[in-house]
Amino acid sequence: xxxxxxxxxxxxxxxxxxxxxxxxxxxxxxxxxxxxxxxxxxxxxxxxxxxxxxxxxxxxxxxxxxxxxxxxxxxxxxxxxxxxxxxxxxxxxxxxxxxxxxxxxxxxxxxxxxxxxxxxxxxxxxxxxxxxxxxxxxxxxxxxxxxxxxxxxxxxxxxxxxxxxxxxxxxxxxxxxxxxxxxxxxxxxxxxxxxxxxxxxxxxxxxxxxxxxxxxxxxxxxxxxxxxxxxxxxxxxxxxxxxxxxxxxxxxxxxxxxxxxxxxxxxxxxxxxxxxxxxxxxxxxxxxxxxxxxxxxxxxxxxxxxxxxxxxxxxxxxxxxxxxxxxxxxxxxxxxxxxxxxxxxxxxxxxxxxxxxxxxxxxxxxxxxxxxxxxxxxxxxxxxxxxxxxxxxxxxxxxxxxxxxxxxxxxxxxxxxxxxxxxxxxxxxxxxxxxxxxxxxxxxxxxxxxxxxxxxxxxxxxxxxxxxxxxxxxxxxxxxxxxxxxxxxxxxxxxxxxxxxxxxxxxxxxxxxxxxxxxxxxxxxxxxxxxxxxxxxxxxxxxxxxxxxxxxxxxxxxxxxxxxxxxxxxxxxxxxxxxxxxxxxxxxxxxxxxxxxxxxxxxxxxxxxxxxxxxxxxxxxxxxxxxxxxxxxxxxxxxxxxxxxxxxxxxxxxxxxxxxxxxxxxxxxxxxxxxxxx
Length: 678
What we know:
The chain has 678 residues and is of the alpha+beta class. It contains 15 helices and 32 strands.
């Protein structure tokens, strides 16, 4: 428990920083209403009072949209169509870091120079940073038990050459640490268009399974270092400073910037990382460096390091260490791996015409794994397909020079993504294809949140839901005869749909109740939402809206309402009823064949809607002469408050079967009542 005095100080500092950031926001003229905005504010075609209806009818989400977001639209940083506005801005943060990993001590020591560029129309009196490793500090708020390592040891903090001291109740300038958050005051206000430098020196003990299994070490021959450095928090056009704590559950929200990182490790340990290796000739043995160069130009997998190379991976040095230098531009995080006696394989993968010069381009995909993980022999071919598929399907070529997969058995069971690198479990006890699934999933994350940088800590569903959907499309392409993974995702969601175990998608991620609520609201349900949208809008319109969202928000920070507005603007449809019923509520879809009776002129079929979530119904009717008819019940039927609809089939042949949604386009919770057979 944090003492009351420190709580009060934290609150005062936080409020003062917020006020400093927001007090000078420039007021902009109201945006004129357009046809698109008018359409988005339309209400469903209903004239019946809600109290007279037999079912809930979804109302507008307008009252759910935060004032802060609406203000950003009024001020022109975002538009009613969901795109960045003419006055959109975001901050930039550059990092120059020196880090050493000491394997025997399980310890990281480091120092960084951070250059913070203030592009906001505001003057800032202070800066907020995140110290994610402090989730391993005694007494820090978190959502699950963790190994207590002591967290970050902050040795010094300097701003513009002036060393700061840790603030006490009487302190006027300095820095203050509150769990995973650090607040520091600036010597003078940082005005629009100016930059400042912050220098930090720190160290920490590496936890075995750190940050929720997203980093750590295994068997004394593998380290994966992430969530590891003091990182300046996002200051955006909607809320200003992002102040949410890291609680070991929901992930991150970071600014873009350029990185220069020198990583010191013992000789004969292999370092792979975010960014481009600048000194391969100095840190790799000559034969390894040559195979590394060859692999970058090869369509076939090349063993850059195999078991015969162990002990001869790097040159020998006088002090037994080597420093590996990496640089990267316009990324939102940095992670690295240090391994000993691991296989290293690689090849190139096509990313299409990245710069529109008419030439096919490639990126380097590689895998680093231990001999104890034999399924990883297929990791590079899996990576090649994933990168190529997503570059085409998402309409955006993979932008970076490489994508590295690290086998992290003993640290993680599934996978975790970072720019240009991912850590994935051994998958020794899973079917071979499961390794493809997780590689495709983590690679899909390179588009969201690594290019389209969403706020995962509040809206994990945007990146995890879209990535789940993208993974499933890749799976259908790679394993075309293995069933439909979209339907499997439906089933994962409907297992708890409508029960007390479910929480709404739009609930902030760290505030879901314990159990499956967070997982379902982050992965299968929003993934299913995109499948529903694809059927509602049609493949062509869906793809246009989806790719528009990605292209408009690449290297920027979208919010949920930007996604909603783009789908409405591109489709020309008011989808408030869908956002309300699927994203804000836990309503269920349960359509049923209610009654089939013969009439003098044919057959009367009653389709019932037993749930609360309105979706159109496609009904397939089989006749005894072998003919099949298809009828559609539009969503407006349910939006008017009806719970049943009649289909009159005027036909001499007899109806022998009725099936709702035969193609499984929608996640009906009870498919047993979707069909009728004579």
